[in-house]
Specification:
There is one protein chain. This protein is 6% helix and 39% strand. It has 501 residues and is mostly beta strands. It starts with 18 loop residues before the first helix and ends with a strand.
Length: 501
């Protein structure tokens, strides 16, 4: 049993943002809005989809901004088939980016500890709410039960309460699924998710498996990068709605951390976009990103990329091979130049320092782990979900409704294979995420996609559409699908699906 961290004095109440306040802010700036993104869509190189990326950039190493050496979050590992974790949800003092701040954390740290498990393990999380607002816990991407005290986002843990979660990680190849991979945990209480996640309440969750044992991947140094975007005011208090041009990007709670690599050395980076609203157009100067996984799903083969667009909630795993001696910038490149509200400038993330004796690069793997291609599957039902927005007052809707946890929006038969058309009639990109069951992207804006894997989060382009197919396997019960721009989720861009036997 992992003992909880030390208790701190009860902090001052968090600055609550009311639904009316959120609506005012969103109608003023529309949070993450965009005009029609034809250029952005053409260059979209995100997740495991086959799309065009920018040509390799011939960038020389430069000094850039080099901060302190990257520190990994503490790691808690399962033993004898079980891991027990104690998390305290707090709003109070913490050290982030080298300064004292007041923000949302687990156990006083942002991000929270990294949880490492094996297929077939059980995970127990005792969540104690030390805040003045309700919260809960979601294990993003895990194929586990949505009922009871498992991945049940309808649970409300009120101030002062403690709730015991218990997750049964399926054995690998359950229903033919690959279970191991990179997941993450974070709050998911409607109306409160955005501030709590932005403040720092998130952590990595890794299930180890067959991908880790493949030649060219096993035994290479591994890094976990939990990337969060937020901003603090002059007094160090988290700002609920920061401006994109002054946003701070934190990696494992650090600003511009430095990572070391030897010329020719291969490293494995597990990367989580754990922000509430920021897209990451990832690129590493002078290097390619050799992608091996997306959203906890191994790719069928390695994809060598120059840049990868990572929407909020998405994860990737890449192999990096050190370039010549020098300092290289890991950054989010400018994205969405044609977008009205959603355009993002270049955002510095970290630095990679290549130094020391050169080593001969190990051969990269080629074939990885195959997945079942659902393009040839028999479809039991087809559905259409329309993501839309209204102004005056500002509303974000799915099929003309805002979220109601007591309303069932979709009823699905356990074991069914379904095709969903996700249609976006708004000028905002909406990262679509569904709990429990992953999906395969079949088409983007009517063009076929040769997918490299399944995924659990994918962005729907402004005024565009994405066709997905999914199998609803193993677990009956209620769970949700939603936009993973968490202010949109909090405003009601979320629906309920119930899987019935």
């Amino acid at each position: 049993m992992v003992e909880p961290g030390p208790l701190i004095a009860r902090p001052e109440p968090a600055r609550r943002v009311t639904p009316a306040g959120r609506a005012h802010r969103l109608s003023r700036r529309r949070m993450l809005g965009s005009a029609v993104a034809t250029a952005g869509l053409a260059a979209l190189s995100q997740g495991a989809r086959t799309v065009r990326s920018a040509p390799t950039r011939q960038t020389s190493p430069g000094s850039g901004v080099v901060g302190a050496t990257l520190v990994e979050p503490p790691v808690l590992r399962s033993a004898d088939g079980h891991l027990d974790v104690a998390l305290e949800a707090q709003f109070g003092p913490a050290m982030i980016g080298g300064r004292a701040v007041t923000t949302y954390t687990y156990n006083g740290h942002a991000p929270g500890p990294t949880l490492r498990l094996q297929p077939g393990d059980s995970l127990g999380v005792t969540l104690t709410n030390q805040m003045d607002q309700p919260t809960n816990l979601h294990t993003h991407g895990l194929h586990v039960s949505p009922a009871g005290n498992s991945d049940n986002v309808f649970v409300h843990v009120m101030p002062g309460e403690t709730f015991a979660y218990e997750y049964a990680i399926p054995p690998d190849n359950t229903s033919g699924l690959y279970i191991p991979g990179l997941y993450w945990y974070h709050p998911h209480l409607h109306g409160y998710s955005s501030d709590q996640v932005s403040g720092g309440m998130a952590g990595a969750l890794i299930v180890e498996g067959a991908l880790d044992a493949l030649p060219g991947i096993r035994d290479v140094p591994e890094r976990v990068l939990v990337i969060q975007a937020t901003q603090f005011d002059a007094d160090g208090v988290m700002i609920s709605f920061p401006k994109m041009d002054v946003i701070d990007i934190f990696v494992n709670g650090q600003i511009h951390p430095a990572m070391e690599i030897a010329p020719g050395e291969t490293q494995r980076w597990r990367i989580i976009n754990a922000s509430s609203f920021t897209f990451l157009n990832l690129a590493l100067d002078g290097h390619q990103l050799h992608q091996i996984a997306s959203d906890a799903n191994p790719l069928r083969e390695v994809r060598s990329r120059d840049q990868i667009l990572l929407a909020t909630g998405e994860r990737i795993e890449v192999l990096i091979q050190g370039g010549p001696e020098g300092v290289y910038a890991l950054q989010s490149l400018p994205w969405g130049a044609d977008l009205e509200f959603q355009a993002q400038p270049a955002l510095p993330i970290a630095s990679l320092i290549s130094s020391g004796p050169a080593v001969t690069p190990e051969p990269l793997p080629t074939t990885l782990i195959p997945f079942e291609d659902l393009r040839q599957a028999m479809i039991d039902k087809r559905r259409e979900l329309i993501f839309s927005e209204e102004m005056k007052p500002f509303e974000v809707l799915i099929n003309s409704h805002t979220f109601d946890e007591d309303r069932i929006d979709q009823t699905v038969k356990l074991g069914a294979t379904e095709e969903w058309l996700l249609r976006n009639t708004s000028p905002d990109w909406h990262p679509f995420h569904i709990h429990v069951n992953d999906f395969q992207v079949i088409e983007i804006n009517g063009e076929s996609v040769d997918a490299y894997s399944w995924e659990d989060t994918t962005p729907i382009p402004a005024f565009g559409e994405v066709l997905i197919r999914s199998r609803f396997l193993d677990f009956p019960g209620k769970f949700v699908y939603h936009c993973h721009l968490l202010d949109h989720e909090d405003q009601g861009m979320m629906g309920v699906v119930e899987v019935v036997e």
